[in-house]
Amino acid sequence: MTSEPSVSRNRLVLVVYTAAIFVSALLLFSVQPLFTKMVLPRLGGSPAVWSVAMVFFQSLLLGGYAYAHVLMTLKNRAIPVVVHLALLVVALLTLPLAISSGWGEPPHSGYALWLLGLFAVSIGLPFFALAANNPLLQAWFVRTGHPDGPDPYFLYASSNIGSFLALLSYPVLLEPVFTLRSQNLIWTCGYGLLIVLIAGCGVLLLRAPAGAAALNMQADEASAPAPSWLLRARWIFLAAVPSGLLIAVTAHISTDVAAAPLLWVLPLSLYLLTWVLVFQSRPLLPHKWMLRLQPLAIAGVVILLAVGGEQNLLLTLGGHQLCFFVIAMACHGELARTRPAAKYLTGFYVALSFGGMVGGLFAGLIAPFTFSWVAEYPILLALAALCRPTGTERLPRWSAWYWPLLAVLAVALIAPSYSPGEIFSWLDDRRVWMIGAVGALSALLALGLNANRWKIFATVAVALVLLRAYPSDDGRVETVRSFFGVHKIVVTPNGQYHVLMHGTTIHGAEKFKNDDGTPVTGRPEAITYYHKDGGIGRAISAIRERKGAPLKVAVIGLGSGTLTCASEPGEDWKFFEIDQSMVDTARDPKYFTYIQNCEPNLKPVIGDARLTFAKEPDGIYDLIIVDAYSSDAIPIHLATEEAMAIYKEKLAPQGAVVMHVSNRHLELSSVVVGIAEANDLKSWVYSEDSGRDNEYIFSTSVVVSARDDADVGKLASSDVWAETEASENQRVWTDDYSNVLGAVWRRLRDGEQ
What we know:
By secondary structure, the chain is α/β, with parallel strands linked by helices. The protein has helices spanning 3-39, 48-71, 78-92, 111-131, 133-143, 154-177, 180-207, 219-222, 229-254, 261-278, 287-307, 313-337, 345-370, 376-384, 396-399, 402-414, 422-429, 431-449, 453-469, 535-547, 580-587, 594-598, 609-612, 641-650, 669-677, 740-752; strands at residues 476-482, 485-491, 497-502, 505-511, 552-556, 572-577, 605-606, 621-626, 651-660, 682-688, 700-706, 722-724. Helix 1 (3-39) runs antiparallel to helix 2 and helix 16 packs parallel to helix 19.
């Protein structure tokens, strides 16, 4: 009879603690895309905002875990309960979430530090309180005397299930259905519910008899020695590598699609799913399987990087993330395998969070300021090989010869890249096969010979050096990196064209030599998306003809400076650009000469256009060209109803807005038509294939919006411009609402038709 109340109490303890940890994780990880999306418009929608946000979240996670560790060193059980509930209540008073006053406009440099400060003062306290819940509640659970107390790590799986669902539901459910304001209110209510659940956990802990934790503890667990410092260092390393890879993979896939929660949460969801799977009592994917697949996954990323794949959205999203999942499973599986006894639980979590912060700092802050290209991805990929456990090599007599053989192979393949000739050309033509073969060799070493992890690491490193030695771009490549991404300046093999690229997207190009090899002289011809016969060129001509006088034009986005040569004598063109490194590149005549030849006195306005352009006088521009969309990584906040309202305010009485919306992965024409109609503007859409890609003259998608037909002149009656009305079934994008998933779906649907 006396056991019945105990059984019901244990059931209650399990339900309340599981619910509290689940809700806490749900809130912890849903706030990340929610608040980061609120911050994005401050910095041009740069994907780097998410990287810095991840560094902040991981750093504060470490702070929360350390706070929980210190609280649980106290002998008195009541003090941790009272202190933590007080912290949660104080944090509740700072809600709902909002960007702190005084942080409205970023500086002209030091964006990363400014962002960290913004996050700290805006959501630092509630996030810190949430960050402490997972280790703290697990430690409380051990002390309740529940039969499962000696191995409470299953609750970590419950926590990560909550995190996983929060992230996965954000782009699929929350973002398409709810506005940011509604999401904020839902999140605040959830925070209040969590305080009630944690108070219940505290009551159940305080009602447990003193020393209850020892009742279910096995003798060997009670006397388990403290983990060695070498083991703690191993935990930190095992946590750091996948954490850094998470940011590197996210940056890689989001650069060429959109700086949007949809693409942030996919790799982070997989990252959390690995924690769920490895801490199950009976893992669905056994650790030994993951260790066998890990070398194949590393080789897979090497091959993907060699092949490219950004032209194929499914390959980019699927291939890199599948390989990342396997690598993270192997690393986190090692952590689960070497986890300590429950009494050292909070220290274990401190090591995990410290490693996560180190990996995040490297990939999110250190690497962008250290390397002129995205070097962190291959570096972390090679380090992943060192996460493998030690083992006995097969055929040790032969494996001793591997080091000199690898050295000879490396010299034979890398040396030709420093002296281009017949051997270089032969290897360069077969670069994918060459790099793929070396990557595959690392996998064969692991699977066939169970080779030492240092040999696998060295082989992967050789393959990754070959990626740099034999770039996929034809011709000479230079890179320029800033907070807003990595820009490549590619000089084609014959020196005929200089091409500006961001990821795999061309931002602009200039012809330096004629077909016969003679230098181009005079005023450069506008090419790529800006040719006179393309959508933007036709729109400029039509507005100029309609006015019959010099134009006053505002251009958002500088690129290679091509549009400076679209101006005519007497006209006033003003450019707005967020990235100073982009301005420096466009000004440098060794890269491009548009500015030097057409607007040598150009003084662009630096800063995010939503902030800087809004300060312009109303009613003065005949034409506003929004050209921040020629990259596939789109700044969403420049295509909202509120953004179009700003453009409309700045238009002269008969002015027009031209928005360049060419994109491989998102259908944006209907978005622009919708935000224009919401501001009582008509829209005409141009989308035509130039058929001249070999001359760097590309097909474009352009939308022109104006108050009346007469404002766009001959475009209104043109056969190649279609007057288009907004779809009744498509919700208008606002600062409070956007739906990237819908834009991806429309592009896929249109491509199949």
